[in-house]
Amino acid sequence: MKLLDILKAKENFSPTEQVIIDYVMEHYQEVASLSARDLAEKTYTSSAAVVRLSQKIGLKGYAEFKIKFTSEAMRVSSPAGFYENSITNKDSILSILDKVARIEIEAIQETKNEINVGQIIKTIHLIDQAEHIDFYAMDNNLRIAKIACYCFLHAGKLSTVNSAVNAQYVQALASPRSHVAFIISRTGENNKLIEIAEILKTRKVKIILVTAVKPSSLTKLCDETLWVSSEREFNELGTMVFLSAAKYMFDVLFSVLFAKHYESTLSRNEFFEKIFRV
């Protein structure tokens, strides 16, 4: 059930909780910039009440509430009316065209809104300092790893991704501390990737996680975590949304590297295009 549906139902909430709900529903555009303390002050309640409300509806805390609420509120001109993004057996090809475009655009916008510029700067610094970039991913996420690896090569960073799981283990076991590792995991709970991260930690390799869930088992093992949008049901293309948002994140990183090393990157790719021009 969607968060806005739960809030609009007005069931089983205390008077204090209802005051908080009424405020965020009416001032939904402000929520992304409000801390728990800010919201408490505006509703004449308390930070503890804000956190309790978040937990009462099944979330870990206000930070998760803010992400989910903002994500859903962005889909509508006001929370009173939804764009229905779920794919159903009643959809026509035209409605599917609209829904898929809207879902992917929203995922990228949600990801953009959550990006911490300081964290991007730290990540770019790690990439710049690394002798080699290694990618670790399973199943569908290998598609993103391969695209990112190819882009980083064009940016002048030696990069590797192995499709076979056993090769990824060997890659981790052989990685020196001069390497940087990217782990791509939607849930942050993939057991094989957790084992790989533990190996990398013993090798003193810096790890950057791209994920849709925070916190998770992998976030505890990684040096930097880049959050991307994905928390949707299967009929809202949850898995595909993660791929779109993760690709956007890697496109941002590549573009920052391109801008930072503009002349050398441009020269390298102009030479590449001359060789492979048809």
Task: Reconstruct the topology from this structure.
Blueprint: H1 3-9, H2 15-26, H3 36-43, H4 47-56, H5 62-73, H6 93-114, H7 117-129, E1 132-137, H8 141-154, E2 159-161, H9 165-174, E3 179-184, H10 191-202, E4 206-211, E5 224-227, H11 238-260, H12 262-276
Parallel strand pairs: 1-2, 1-3, 3-4, 4-5
Helix pairs in contact: 2-3, 3-4, 6-11, 8-11, 9-10
What's the gist of this structure?
With 278 residues, the chain is α/β, with parallel strands linked by helices. The protein has helices spanning 3-9, 15-26, 36-43, 47-56, 62-73, 93-114, 117-129, 141-154, 165-174, 191-202, 238-260, 262-276; strands at 132-137, 159-161, 179-184, 206-211, 224-227. The protein is globular and about 65 Å long.
Descriptive account of the structure:
It comes from Propionispira arboris. GO terms for molecular function: carbohydrate derivative binding; DNA binding; DNA-binding transcription factor activity. Pfam families: HTH_6, SIS. Keywords: DNA-binding, Transcription, Transcription regulation. With 278 residues, the chain is α/β, with parallel strands linked by helices. The chain has two domains: 3-73, Winged helix-like DNA-binding domain superfamily/Winged helix DNA-binding domain (Arc Repressor Mutant, subunit A, Orthogonal Bundle); 114-276, Glucose-6-phosphate isomerase like protein, domain 1 (Rossmann fold, 3-Layer(aba) Sandwich). The protein is 57% helix and 9% strand. The protein contains twelve helices and five strands. The chain has helices at residues 3-9, 15-26, 36-43, 47-56, 62-73, 93-114, 117-129, 141-154, 165-174, 191-202, 238-260, 262-276, and strands at 132-137, 159-161, 179-184, 206-211, 224-227. A five-stranded parallel β-sheet has the order 2-1-3-4-5, with helices on both faces. Helix 10 (191-202) links the parallel strand 3 (179-184) and strand 4 (206-211).
